[in-house]
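Researcher: Next sequence.
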Amino acid sequence: MFTDSTDNKLIILLNAAGVAIAYAMLGISLWLSTEVPLATKGYWGMGVLLLTLSLINVVKYRFDHRSSEDRIRKIEDARNEKLLQDALLDPKLDL
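Model: Next structure:
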């Protein structure tokens, strides 16, 4: 059932490495830029961190919504299958 867990782990690892590299490059560029005031560097850094947190929340909420829709669909499918099975086994019905 969960055969793609190694693929997911690899994709998550690659994404985490990409985010770490992006943060490192941003930090280096902010550290080495001497023309930009320290307050501006801090503002940019906070903006990037808050944007990252917002994107994580959006992805989490979309995943939770999709998961709940799948769960509801499975419950409805099971209910419909049970109703069909009961209808076919009902001796009062002449099919």
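Model: The helical segments are 5-32, 38-89. Residues 61 and 67 are 10 Å apart (CA to CA).
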